[in-house]
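re: ur question from yesterday

yeah so i grabbed the chain u mentioned. its 309 aa long if i counted rite. heres the sequnce exactly as i have it in my notes:
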Amino acid sequence: MEIVNLETHSPIDSVVIRVSDVTKRFSNQVALDRVSFEVKAGANCVLLGPNGAGKSTLLNLLAGALQPSAGQISVLNNSAGHPATRRQTGVMLQISGVPQTLTVAEHINSFRSYYVQPLSFTEVIQLSQLGGLEKKKYSALSVGQKQKLHFALAICGRPSLLFLDEPSSSLDVQSRLQLWEQIDKLRANSCTFVVSTHDFQEAEHLASHVIVFHEGNIILNGTPEDLRANFADSRISCDTSLDPRELIKLPHVKRVEKIGNLTRLFVNEVENTVRHILSEDSSTSQLEIKCATIEDAYLHLLTHTEHDN
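ran it thru and got these C-alpha coordinates back, copy pasting raw so excuse formatting
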Protein backbone atom coordinates (compact mmCIF):
# COMPACT_ATOMS: atom_id res chain seq x y z
CA MET A 1 0.00 0.00 0.00
CA GLU A 2 1.30 3.42 -0.96
CA ILE A 3 1.74 5.81 1.99
CA VAL A 4 1.35 9.51 1.36
CA ASN A 5 4.02 10.91 3.67
CA LEU A 6 3.99 14.71 3.66
CA GLU A 7 5.94 15.00 6.92
CA THR A 8 9.27 16.85 7.04
CA HIS A 9 12.21 15.60 9.12
CA SER A 10 12.33 17.01 12.66
CA PRO A 11 15.29 17.81 14.89
CA ILE A 12 15.64 15.17 17.59
CA ASP A 13 15.05 17.57 20.48
CA SER A 14 11.65 18.66 19.08
CA VAL A 15 10.26 15.12 18.80
CA VAL A 16 8.22 13.86 21.77
CA ILE A 17 6.94 10.64 20.12
CA ARG A 18 8.83 8.42 17.72
CA VAL A 19 7.18 5.25 16.38
CA SER A 20 9.46 3.04 14.27
CA ASP A 21 8.20 0.03 12.26
CA VAL A 22 5.65 -0.90 14.91
CA THR A 23 3.45 -3.94 14.41
CA LYS A 24 0.76 -5.12 16.81
CA ARG A 25 -0.89 -8.53 16.48
CA PHE A 26 -3.78 -10.03 18.40
CA SER A 27 -3.54 -13.78 17.73
CA ASN A 28 -3.72 -13.97 13.93
CA GLN A 29 -5.13 -10.46 13.47
CA VAL A 30 -2.74 -7.63 12.56
CA ALA A 31 -4.04 -4.42 14.17
CA LEU A 32 -1.04 -2.29 13.12
CA ASP A 33 1.37 -3.17 10.34
CA ARG A 34 4.89 -1.63 10.50
CA VAL A 35 3.74 1.94 11.15
CA SER A 36 6.26 4.75 11.59
CA PHE A 37 5.80 8.44 12.41
CA GLU A 38 6.94 11.26 14.70
CA VAL A 39 5.05 13.86 16.73
CA LYS A 40 6.67 17.21 17.45
CA ALA A 41 6.46 19.03 20.78
CA GLY A 42 3.43 21.32 20.92
CA ALA A 43 1.57 19.56 18.12
CA ASN A 44 -2.04 18.49 18.15
CA CYS A 45 -1.83 15.25 16.20
CA VAL A 46 -5.24 13.96 15.14
CA LEU A 47 -5.70 10.30 14.19
CA LEU A 48 -8.39 9.58 11.60
CA GLY A 49 -9.64 6.31 10.15
CA PRO A 50 -12.57 3.90 10.06
CA ASN A 51 -13.49 1.73 13.04
CA GLY A 52 -10.91 -1.02 13.40
CA ALA A 53 -8.21 0.90 11.52
CA GLY A 54 -5.79 0.76 14.48
CA LYS A 55 -6.22 4.18 16.12
CA SER A 56 -7.22 2.99 19.61
CA THR A 57 -4.61 0.22 19.50
CA LEU A 58 -1.97 2.84 18.76
CA LEU A 59 -3.08 5.04 21.68
CA ASN A 60 -2.89 2.05 24.02
CA LEU A 61 0.63 1.34 22.76
CA LEU A 62 1.70 4.97 23.24
CA ALA A 63 0.27 4.95 26.77
CA GLY A 64 2.11 1.73 27.63
CA ALA A 65 -1.13 -0.22 28.17
CA LEU A 66 -0.09 -2.58 25.34
CA GLN A 67 3.29 -3.72 24.08
CA PRO A 68 4.17 -3.85 20.37
CA SER A 69 4.66 -7.21 18.70
CA ALA A 70 7.57 -5.67 16.79
CA GLY A 71 9.22 -2.29 16.36
CA GLN A 72 10.08 0.49 18.79
CA ILE A 73 8.20 3.32 20.49
CA SER A 74 9.85 6.29 22.22
CA VAL A 75 7.71 8.69 24.26
CA LEU A 76 9.38 11.71 25.86
CA ASN A 77 12.78 10.06 25.28
CA ASN A 78 11.80 6.93 27.20
CA SER A 79 9.94 3.73 26.43
CA ALA A 80 6.14 3.97 26.43
CA GLY A 81 4.87 3.24 29.93
CA HIS A 82 8.21 4.06 31.64
CA PRO A 83 7.54 5.60 35.11
CA ALA A 84 9.23 8.86 34.08
CA THR A 85 6.98 8.98 31.00
CA ARG A 86 3.81 8.22 32.95
CA ARG A 87 4.47 11.16 35.28
CA GLN A 88 4.39 13.52 32.28
CA THR A 89 1.48 12.04 30.36
CA GLY A 90 -2.29 12.01 30.72
CA VAL A 91 -4.49 9.33 29.19
CA MET A 92 -8.19 9.26 28.29
CA LEU A 93 -9.07 5.96 26.65
CA GLN A 94 -12.41 4.39 25.72
CA ILE A 95 -12.28 1.94 28.64
CA SER A 96 -11.59 3.78 31.88
CA GLY A 97 -12.34 1.26 34.66
CA VAL A 98 -13.33 4.07 37.05
CA PRO A 99 -14.75 2.87 40.42
CA GLN A 100 -18.50 3.49 40.51
CA THR A 101 -18.96 4.39 44.18
CA LEU A 102 -16.48 7.29 44.53
CA THR A 103 -17.58 10.88 44.03
CA VAL A 104 -16.17 13.23 41.42
CA ALA A 105 -14.14 15.02 44.12
CA GLU A 106 -12.78 11.74 45.50
CA HIS A 107 -11.69 10.59 42.06
CA ILE A 108 -9.93 13.86 41.28
CA ASN A 109 -8.18 14.10 44.65
CA SER A 110 -7.11 10.47 44.40
CA PHE A 111 -5.51 11.06 40.98
CA ARG A 112 -3.94 14.36 42.10
CA SER A 113 -2.19 12.52 44.94
CA TYR A 114 -0.15 10.49 42.43
CA TYR A 115 1.74 13.57 41.19
CA VAL A 116 4.35 15.86 42.71
CA GLN A 117 2.98 19.07 41.18
CA PRO A 118 -0.61 18.40 40.13
CA LEU A 119 -3.11 20.98 38.97
CA SER A 120 -5.13 22.38 41.84
CA PHE A 121 -8.54 20.85 42.50
CA THR A 122 -10.18 24.09 41.38
CA GLU A 123 -8.21 24.16 38.11
CA VAL A 124 -9.21 20.57 37.30
CA ILE A 125 -12.88 21.28 37.99
CA GLN A 126 -12.82 24.43 35.84
CA LEU A 127 -10.95 22.88 32.91
CA SER A 128 -13.22 19.82 32.85
CA GLN A 129 -16.52 21.73 33.36
CA LEU A 130 -17.46 19.68 36.43
CA GLY A 131 -18.57 22.54 38.68
CA GLY A 132 -21.54 21.54 40.85
CA LEU A 133 -20.91 17.82 40.42
CA GLU A 134 -18.13 17.44 42.99
CA LYS A 135 -20.26 15.39 45.45
CA LYS A 136 -21.95 13.23 42.85
CA LYS A 137 -20.97 9.55 42.64
CA TYR A 138 -19.58 8.25 39.36
CA SER A 139 -22.48 5.80 39.02
CA ALA A 140 -24.95 8.72 39.10
CA LEU A 141 -23.25 10.72 36.34
CA SER A 142 -24.65 10.92 32.83
CA VAL A 143 -22.57 9.51 29.97
CA GLY A 144 -21.43 13.03 29.04
CA GLN A 145 -20.52 13.87 32.65
CA LYS A 146 -18.49 10.66 32.91
CA GLN A 147 -16.63 11.73 29.77
CA LYS A 148 -15.81 15.05 31.43
CA LEU A 149 -14.50 13.25 34.51
CA HIS A 150 -12.29 11.02 32.35
CA PHE A 151 -10.80 14.19 30.83
CA ALA A 152 -10.35 15.64 34.35
CA LEU A 153 -8.40 12.58 35.48
CA ALA A 154 -6.21 12.78 32.37
CA ILE A 155 -5.14 16.36 33.14
CA CYS A 156 -4.72 16.08 36.93
CA GLY A 157 -0.95 15.63 36.78
CA ARG A 158 -0.28 18.76 34.73
CA PRO A 159 0.84 16.60 31.76
CA SER A 160 3.09 17.76 28.95
CA LEU A 161 1.59 15.06 26.69
CA LEU A 162 -2.06 13.93 26.46
CA PHE A 163 -3.53 10.89 24.70
CA LEU A 164 -7.27 11.32 24.07
CA ASP A 165 -9.47 8.66 22.46
CA GLU A 166 -12.65 10.28 21.07
CA PRO A 167 -12.74 12.90 23.85
CA SER A 168 -15.93 14.67 22.75
CA SER A 169 -18.07 11.61 22.07
CA SER A 170 -21.26 11.72 24.20
CA LEU A 171 -20.87 15.48 24.83
CA ASP A 172 -23.56 17.96 23.82
CA VAL A 173 -22.66 20.76 21.42
CA GLN A 174 -21.90 23.36 24.09
CA SER A 175 -19.79 20.97 26.18
CA ARG A 176 -17.90 19.88 23.08
CA LEU A 177 -17.01 23.48 22.19
CA GLN A 178 -15.95 24.12 25.78
CA LEU A 179 -13.74 21.02 25.73
CA TRP A 180 -12.02 22.21 22.56
CA GLU A 181 -11.46 25.59 24.19
CA GLN A 182 -9.78 23.92 27.18
CA ILE A 183 -7.61 21.80 24.88
CA ASP A 184 -6.58 25.00 23.08
CA LYS A 185 -5.60 26.56 26.42
CA LEU A 186 -3.55 23.53 27.47
CA ARG A 187 -1.81 23.45 24.10
CA ALA A 188 -1.01 27.17 24.45
CA ASN A 189 0.80 26.15 27.65
CA SER A 190 3.08 23.74 25.71
CA CYS A 191 1.01 20.58 26.06
CA THR A 192 1.21 18.12 23.14
CA PHE A 193 -1.86 16.11 22.13
CA VAL A 194 -2.54 12.89 20.25
CA VAL A 195 -6.29 12.70 19.62
CA SER A 196 -8.29 9.94 17.95
CA THR A 197 -11.66 11.05 16.58
CA HIS A 198 -14.45 10.35 14.10
CA ASP A 199 -15.70 13.94 14.45
CA PHE A 200 -14.49 15.98 11.48
CA GLN A 201 -15.47 19.27 13.14
CA GLU A 202 -13.20 18.26 16.01
CA ALA A 203 -10.42 17.46 13.55
CA GLU A 204 -10.87 20.83 11.79
CA HIS A 205 -10.73 22.70 15.09
CA LEU A 206 -7.89 20.86 16.79
CA ALA A 207 -5.51 19.39 14.23
CA SER A 208 -2.08 20.82 13.52
CA HIS A 209 -1.10 17.40 12.12
CA VAL A 210 -3.16 14.53 10.70
CA ILE A 211 -2.40 10.81 10.42
CA VAL A 212 -4.93 8.71 8.51
CA PHE A 213 -5.14 4.97 9.18
CA HIS A 214 -6.67 2.25 7.05
CA GLU A 215 -6.60 -1.45 7.96
CA GLY A 216 -3.65 -1.04 10.30
CA ASN A 217 -1.59 1.04 7.88
CA ILE A 218 -0.83 4.76 7.72
CA ILE A 219 -2.09 6.06 4.36
CA LEU A 220 -1.40 9.76 5.00
CA ASN A 221 0.92 11.64 7.35
CA GLY A 222 0.94 15.45 7.12
CA THR A 223 -0.79 18.71 7.97
CA PRO A 224 -4.50 19.45 7.43
CA GLU A 225 -3.42 21.82 4.65
CA ASP A 226 -1.52 18.96 2.99
CA LEU A 227 -4.55 16.70 3.22
CA ARG A 228 -6.96 19.27 1.79
CA ALA A 229 -4.59 20.44 -0.97
CA ASN A 230 -3.80 16.93 -2.20
CA PHE A 231 -7.15 15.17 -1.83
CA ALA A 232 -9.93 17.76 -2.04
CA ASP A 233 -10.74 20.77 -4.19
CA SER A 234 -12.12 24.08 -3.04
CA ARG A 235 -14.75 25.56 -5.35
CA ILE A 236 -14.99 29.14 -6.58
CA SER A 237 -18.16 30.14 -8.41
CA CYS A 238 -18.60 33.56 -10.01
CA ASP A 239 -19.99 35.56 -12.92
CA THR A 240 -16.89 36.77 -14.76
CA SER A 241 -15.97 37.75 -18.31
CA LEU A 242 -12.62 35.92 -18.03
CA ASP A 243 -12.09 33.14 -20.54
CA PRO A 244 -12.19 29.64 -18.97
CA ARG A 245 -9.40 28.62 -21.37
CA GLU A 246 -7.18 31.21 -19.67
CA LEU A 247 -8.37 30.45 -16.14
CA ILE A 248 -7.41 26.77 -16.46
CA LYS A 249 -3.79 27.91 -16.94
CA LEU A 250 -3.60 29.44 -13.45
CA PRO A 251 -1.23 27.56 -11.09
CA HIS A 252 -3.80 26.28 -8.57
CA VAL A 253 -6.74 25.64 -10.91
CA LYS A 254 -7.50 21.98 -11.61
CA ARG A 255 -10.74 22.26 -13.55
CA VAL A 256 -13.07 24.94 -14.91
CA GLU A 257 -16.75 24.56 -15.73
CA LYS A 258 -19.13 26.98 -17.39
CA ILE A 259 -22.74 26.71 -16.18
CA GLY A 260 -24.96 29.36 -17.73
CA ASN A 261 -23.48 32.72 -16.85
CA LEU A 262 -21.48 31.25 -13.97
CA THR A 263 -17.89 30.04 -14.07
CA ARG A 264 -16.93 27.35 -11.55
CA LEU A 265 -13.29 26.71 -10.71
CA PHE A 266 -11.98 23.71 -8.78
CA VAL A 267 -8.76 24.76 -7.03
CA ASN A 268 -6.32 23.68 -4.33
CA GLU A 269 -5.59 27.27 -3.26
CA VAL A 270 -8.34 29.87 -2.98
CA GLU A 271 -6.89 33.23 -1.98
CA ASN A 272 -4.47 33.81 -4.86
CA THR A 273 -6.99 32.53 -7.42
CA VAL A 274 -9.70 34.90 -6.21
CA ARG A 275 -7.22 37.77 -6.10
CA HIS A 276 -6.29 37.11 -9.74
CA ILE A 277 -9.92 36.98 -10.88
CA LEU A 278 -10.80 40.24 -9.15
CA SER A 279 -7.69 42.02 -10.40
CA GLU A 280 -8.35 40.96 -14.00
CA ASP A 281 -12.11 41.55 -13.95
CA SER A 282 -13.33 44.15 -11.46
CA SER A 283 -16.92 43.55 -12.62
CA THR A 284 -16.90 39.98 -11.28
CA SER A 285 -20.11 39.26 -9.34
CA GLN A 286 -21.99 36.45 -7.58
CA LEU A 287 -18.73 35.27 -6.01
CA GLU A 288 -19.17 32.18 -3.85
CA ILE A 289 -16.44 30.09 -2.24
CA LYS A 290 -16.68 26.61 -0.74
CA CYS A 291 -13.40 25.67 0.89
CA ALA A 292 -12.27 22.05 0.98
CA THR A 293 -12.67 20.37 4.36
CA ILE A 294 -10.76 17.61 6.11
CA GLU A 295 -13.87 15.45 5.71
CA ASP A 296 -13.92 16.02 1.91
CA ALA A 297 -10.24 15.09 1.63
CA TYR A 298 -10.50 12.12 4.00
CA LEU A 299 -13.41 10.56 2.11
CA HIS A 300 -11.64 11.06 -1.23
CA LEU A 301 -8.41 9.54 0.14
CA LEU A 302 -10.28 6.57 1.63
CA THR A 303 -12.18 5.92 -1.60
CA HIS A 304 -8.94 6.10 -3.57
CA THR A 305 -7.22 3.70 -1.15
CA GLU A 306 -10.05 1.15 -1.19
CA HIS A 307 -10.23 1.31 -4.99
CA ASP A 308 -6.48 0.59 -5.24
CA ASN A 309 -6.89 -2.42 -2.94
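noticed a couple things. Confidence is low (pLDDT under 50) at residues 8-12. also The longest strand covers residues 15-26.
anyway ttyl
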